[in-house]
Automatic annotation (TrEMBL):
Domain (UvrC family homology region profile): residue spans on this chain: 262-476
Domain GIY-YIG residue range list: 15-93
Taxonomic source organism: Mangrovimonas cancribranchiae
Stated name of the protein: UvrABC system protein C
Any one GO MF annotation of this record: DNA binding
Stretches assigned to the UVR domain: 207-242
InterPro entries given in the database record: GIY-YIG_endonuc, GIY-YIG_endonuc_sf, GIY-YIG_UvrC_Cho, RuvA_2-like, UVR_dom, UVR_dom_sf, UvrABC_protein_C, UvrC
Cited HAMAP family: UvrC
Length: 597
């Protein structure tokens, strides 16, 4: 198909809601999308510039377009979801974790069995779930078996077979775990009353069962059957204990699904909480890999459809952080305060924790993916033109002019590269002048890299505000590197970042990964600089007579030399002059040392 046919296809698209599919020259499906207006949405791919590389590549590959018109946007959402799952197109988001989950089955039989399964057979049996953890399933089944005596055998308990006395009661009957329907010792009606109670418990409704048990206990007590009453009392305690353990939100909030999302450059994490009778009966987080630059709205919408389908949710109301387009018979609530907001925040916290866990796992199992993700994130956060694979951070450690030194630390792929760290002794600057020192050090560092034809960093970080940044820029100008390397200054308040020619700082989110890396760079630069400074200072200062005075340490020596400039002046100082610098106690020690000599 030529270009004209693509033009013709675009012109003939309807202005209706629907689903579109893009195909390449091999007739392979590339992308599935939905739209309120097919013509507008599909045309937008071809009539505007795309900043994002993957979208550009996608558009270049499109040779033909197919579309399916549907009645409503909700239908489009469902159809899009099904097509993505069926064809898994290369450019569509990837919904992770396609594993099978356990369900609890109430089998369609005269005397139904209740058990866990991962296979759904459409034979009229009822399935509850799916559950995201087998532990929950085991706990529920233990609870049910503790409360109700159900059969575990798989006999066909047809009435005529029971009448023909085909079966005999087994050990479960003698242990009191089954009431023996196989010998006609329990009626179908009584058994089904228990099944009805189990059905309610699985839905999260404990109220009816508690009510029934309490009435039974009272009846046994009135009939003086205290042993039976005690057994029922124990069951009530088991049920109340289980109910207390399930997270209670607010008994008025029932049959609601809660969804929240956190995302970064490459992935979205959607948490789903299902609430029934005021309790959270399910929590599940879905990881979604972005293929293009999908918005949080688009990802959340897709995830809601997927999760409600997967977990067979019949809820008619959802709580979400922002408005989304879903089925018209579902009420969408965006909570602002109170219990509803609290539950949305809880969902968000679950999504954030899941994301953190995934990061930790990926760091261990796939360090390259971890580094790549951080680089993409830093590029976006710091508004850079390229990923900062190689970062250098400068710090001046000059303590009021004594032994001025500077440090340059290097990070590669978000990790310290210690072999590339460098120390500088300030050569050209007389006295304490941080700005001139920064200018000298930056010039020396990049003059050397240029002379030796070594790779330059993508990002330079200057520890200091606007003044330090301007000094560093002078050196980059002198070397002709301005604009070739990104450079930023970090102020005392770490989250303030200064850019050249921009008076207003950029503020980073305190919890962002980018800020953590910058913090690490600065801490390393401080540590490395101070270590070198100490070594130099020790060589110069610690050989002095002051060091030999008992009770006077390195810090005090540095303070004295900063103020008095020489040991001779310290020895001639008056007591009150010494007190001003090192306090009364140490001043007395020093004064007495020299005047009692």
């Amino acid at each position: 198909m030529g270009e004209t046919s693509l033009d013709v296809q675009l012109k003939t698209l309807p202005n209706q809601p629907g689903v579109y599919q893009f195909f390449d020259s091999n007739d392979t499906i590339l992308y599935v999308g939905k739209a309120k207006n097919l013509k507008k949405r599909v045309s937008s791919y071809f009539n505007k510039q795309h900043d994002y590389g993957k979208t550009k590549v996608l558009v270049k590959k499109i040779v033909s377009i197919k579309h399916i018109v549907v009645d409503t946007e909700t239908d489009a959402l469902l159809l899009e979801n099904n097509l993505i799952k069926k064809y898994q197109p290369r450019y569509n988001v990837l919904l992770k974790d396609d594993k099978s989950y356990p369900w609890i089955c109430i089998k369609k039989e005269r005397f139904p069995r209740v058990f866990s399964t991962r296979r759904i057979i459409k034979d009229g049996s009822e399935y509850f779930g799916p559950y995201t953890s087998m532990k929950t399933v085991s706990t529920l089944l233990d609870l049910i078996r503790g409360l109700f005596q159900l059969r575990t055998c798989n006999y066909d308990l047809a009435q005529e077979k029971i009448d023909a006395e085909k079966y005999k009661v087994c050990l479960e009957y003698h242990l009191g775990n089954c009431k023996g329907p196989c010998e006609g010792l329990e009626t179908e009606v009584a058994y089904h009353n228990n099944i009805a109670s189990i059905r309610e418990i699985l839905k999260g409704n404990f109220k009816d069962s508690l009510h029934q048990f309490k009435a039974q206990m009272k009846r046994f007590a009135e009939e003086m059957q205290f042993e039976e009453a005690q057994k029922i009392k124990e069951k009530i305690e088991v049920l109340e204990n289980y109910q207390a353990k399930s997270t209670i939100v607010n008994p008025k909030i029932s049959n609601v699904d809660v969804f929240s999302i956190v995302s970064d450059e490459s992935y979205g994490y959607v948490n789903f909480l299902q609430i029934s009778y005021g309790s959270i009966i399910r929590s599940h987080t879905l990881e979604i890999k972005k293929k293009l630059q999908e918005t949080d709205e688009a990802l959340l919408q897709l995830a809601i459809t997927e999760l409600q389908q997967r977990f067979n949710s019949k809820s008619k109301e959802i709580f979400v952080p922002f408005k989304v387009d879903v089925s018209s018979d579902i009420k969408v609530t965006v909570p602002k305060l109170g219990d509803k907001k609290h539950i949305l925040d809880l969902s968000l916290r679950n999504a954030k924790y899941y994301r953190m866990e995934r990061f930790k796992q990926v760091k261990i199992t796939d360090p390259d993916r971890h580094a790549n993700r951080i680089m993409v994130q830093m590029k976006a956060d710091l508004r850079l033109h390229e990923e900062p694979r190689h970062i250098e951070c400068f710090d001046n450690s000059n303590i009021q002019g004594t032994n001025p030194v500077a440090a340059c630390v290097v990070f590669k792929n978000g990790k310290p590269s210690k072999k590339d760290y460098r120390h500088f002794n300030i050569k050209t600057v007389e006295g304490p002048d941080d700005f001139a020192s920064m200018e000298e050090v930056v010039y020396r560092r990049y003059k050397r890299l240029l002379d030796e034809e070594k790779p330059l960093p993508q990002l330079i970080i200057i520890d200091g505000g606007k003044g330090q940044l301007s000094s560093a820029l002078k050196s980059l100008d002198a070397l002709g590197l301005r604009g070739k390397i990104a450079i930023i200054g970090i102020a005392k308040r770490l989250e303030e970042l200064f850019y050249p020619d921009d008076p207003i700082p950029l503020y980073l989110d305190k919890k962002s990964e980018t800020l953590k890396i910058i913090q690490q760079l600065r801490n390393e630069a401080h540590r490395f600089g101070i270590e070198h400074h100490r070594n130099r200072r020790s060589k110069n200062a610690l050989n002095t007579e002051l060091e030999t005075i008992s009770g006077i340490g390195e810090k005090t020596v540095v303070e004295l030399l900063k103020t008095f400039k020489s040991v001779k002046r310290v020895s001639n100082a008056k007591l009150d002059e010494l007190e001003d610098v090192v306090g009364k106690h140490k001043a007395n020690i020093i004064y007495n040392y020299y005047h009692n000599k």
